[in-house]
Write a structure and sequence with these properties.
The complex is a heterodimer of chains A (about 90) and B (about 140). By secondary structure, chain A is of the alpha+beta class. Helix content of chain A is about 15%, strand content about 40%. Chain A has a five-stranded antiparallel beta sheet. In chain A, β2 and β3 form a beta hairpin. The radius of gyration of chain A is 13 Å and the shape is globular. Chain B has about 140 residues and is α/β, with parallel strands linked by helices. Chain B has a single domain (about 5-135), classed as Glutaredoxin, CATH 3.40.30.10. In chain B, about 40% of the residues lie in helices and about 20% in strands. Chain B has a five-stranded mixed beta sheet, sandwiched between helices. The chains are: A alpha+beta (about 90), B alpha/beta (about 140).
């Protein structure tokens, strides 16, 4: 669903899950998406590894409560993005 | 920088008009939270049209329900900074989110509706989630 920011992507202002090609996951508020990049604000990054919850557990908690804004602004190259979906769709 | 009070005023009034008590200082938040047992709905209001535009109408519809929290309070993110920080300290394990809604029961968080479950949804959908929460936690026979 779009917002009143007509010059932005339809997901502007919406909290999204960005699946990265390297297996990482970004959750944050979408600022804009174009042919070259995905810009996410107030974001957290999950990377599978020691001491981290697995991805499903991470996303389950994110869907329930949101994420801590550890990165004010992330600019991700489209080539590094596998998928973008709404976090709210995971919560429903 | 906080938004202009003129811009925020009607957004505040959308909630005070339906019974919310405005909490504009940390002391007011403390007094409200510690007022006693029972259920208390604390709303972090915000300017953002992407989500807050449906949060306030959703609340209005939800509060037409026969089962409601005992008391209603609100802080305004980006405006009442100290009060908002104190309110968020009531559920410090939950990431900051605005708008958002927290139901406290006897001072404990029992339900949280974060921004991402408000944004892009219709007011009626937000209200349905809240009514289900009220039925679960605020009914006379609720555990």
């Amino acid at each position: 669903m779009g917002t009143f920011h007509q010059h932005k992507h339809a997901l502007h202002g919406i909290t999204v899950v960005v699946e990265l090609a390297d297996g990482g996951t970004v959750v944050g508020r979408c600022d804009d998406i174009d042919d070259h990049q995905v810009i996410v604000l107030d974001a957290d990054i999950h990377r599978p590894g020691a001491g981290e919850p697995d991805k499903d557990a991470y996303l389950a908690r994110a869907a329930r409560f949101g994420v801590w804004p550890r990165h004010g602004r992330l600019v991700i190259a489209r080539a590094d993005v596998r998928a973008v979906e709404r976090l709210g769709d995971l919560a429903s | 920088m906080p938004y202009s009070p003129l811009l925020v005023k009607p957004m505040r009034e959308e909630l005070t008009a339906i019974g919310f008590e405005e909490l504009m200082t940390a002391e007011q938040v403390d007094a409200w939270v510690n007022r006693g047992a029972g259920t208390a709905l604390l709303v972090v209001n915000s300017v953002c049209g992407c989500a807050a535009g449906m949060a306030r109408p959703g609340l209005r519809i939800a509060l037409e329900h026969s089962v409601r929290p005992d008391r209603l309070g609100t802080v305004f993110a980006g405006q009442d900074l100290e009060a908002t920080a104190r309110a968020r300290a009531c559920f410090a394990d939950v990431p900051p989110s605005s708008p958002s809604m927290a139901l406290l029961k006897d001072g404990q968080l029992v339900y949280f509706l974060p921004r991402h479950r408000i944004e892009g949804r219709a007011a009626e959908e937000v209200a349905a989630d809240l009514r289900a929460c009220f039925d679960q936690h605020c009914a006379a026979d609720a555990a």
